[in-house]
Write a structure and sequence with these properties.
Elements lengths: L4 H11 L3 E5 L3 H14 L3 E6 H6 L3 H14 L4 E8 L2 H10 L3 E4 L6 H16 L4 E6 L19 H11 L3 E4 L18 H11 L3 E3 L7 H9 L2 E6 L1 H17 L5 H23 L7 H17 L1
Parallel strand pairs: 1-2, 1-8, 2-3, 3-4, 4-5, 5-6, 6-7, 7-8
Helix pairs in contact: 2-4, 2-11, 7-8, 10-11
Length: 302
């Protein structure tokens, strides 16, 4: 099923689990991710980043292909623009057929962040497309941004931000960062802040920079209210490591063998991650439709 990310995350929010959002830059990665979700009966989100689309994952080819694979699956699959920062990024994604867009204006002054995101929300919601915003700033691991507390999400400001923008999900900064952490380092996450954010907002919260954060941190983040976890670097490493191992095993391995090894490794990685964050066995097609209606009732009755 090719669905809105809003439906997926509302369900995760109500039933207290998280869904992977995996950056998938070619056919093999996208297929591995969707097949893993299918076998685990889990919802899944495919991420495509702006830079990734410019370098390799061209949306003219990737979006129709992902949509076709998603429609053949009997678990919910969403396609999300990852870290769009410009108006034209969001509009292009909407036109290409993404089912959700993430607009990252977190490095801008607060009022400008609110204004830009609210504008995109109005346009996207008119098309039935979900929007994720970011408040606080999830920076880069190599710059040590995970430890900069002044970049973390402020709870009171988050309430104002959600009310004024109307976002469907909020990416929060609690101590993670994008990319690879220095060797041997595991970030320290501010779980108390995360609990306060969840209690105040009662909506789907997103963890960016999930790669390299450690299983204990990830499990606790889900327990404290995270519903979407962006995973890019770790998925890439799974593919890279498998390709290197294949070459080490057989220096004459051909292109097909190398790519098949990478795809199989990504699939195994995603299946294991799905088990860790609690989204396994959440969905078949009938359950998805029934529980979607149940959530509507829950929201109306409080």
């Amino acid at each position: 099923m090719f669905v809105s990310m809003k439906d997926i995350l509302e369900h995760a929010n109500v039933y207290n689990y998280a869904v992977m959002a995996v950056n998938s830059v070619n056919m093999e990665m996208a297929r591995a991710v969707i097949e893993a979700a299918q076998e685990k009966h889990s919802p899944i989100i495919i991420n495509l980043g702006v830079g990734q689309m410019k370098k390799l994952a061209h949306p003219t080819e990737m979006v129709p292909m992902i949509r076709e694979m998603a429609e053949r699956a009997d678990v919910p699959v969403a396609l999300n623009l990852d870290h769009g920062s410009k108006f034209e990024d969001e509009i292009s994604a909407i036109r290409y057929g993404f089912t959700s867009v993430m607009i990252d204006c977190s490095a801008l002054p607060y009022e400008e962040n609110v204004s830009r995101v609210a504008n995109i929300v109005a346009l996207a919601h008119a098309k039935g497309i979900a929007v994720e915003g970011e408040l606080g700033h999830v920076g880069q691991a190599f710059q040590g941004d995970d430890g900069k507390v002044d970049l973390y999400t402020n709870v009171a400001q988050a309430r104002d931000y959600v009310d004024r923008t109307g976002v469907d999900a909020l990416a929060v900064a609690i101590g993670t960062a994008h990319g690879d952490y220095p060797k041997g380092m595991t970030p320290r996450l501010d779980f108390e802040r995360l609990k306060e954010l969840k209690a105040e907002l009662r909506m789907p919260l997103v963890l960016h920079g999930g790669s390299g954060s450690g299983e204990e941190n990830i499990r606790k983040a889900v327990e404290c209210g995270i519903n979407k976890i962006n995973v890019c670097t770790d998925a890439f490493h799974a593919a890279e490591d498998a390709m290197k191992a294949k070459w080490a095993e057989n220096p004459k391995a051909n292109y097909l063998e190398i790519m098949a090894a990478a795809e199989a490794a990504v699939k195994r990685f995603v299946m294991d991650y799905i088990d860790m964050i609690g989204s396994a066995d959440r969905y078949g097609y009938g359950e998805y439709l029934a529980e979607k209606e149940e959530i509507v009732v829950l929201k109306k009755t409080g």
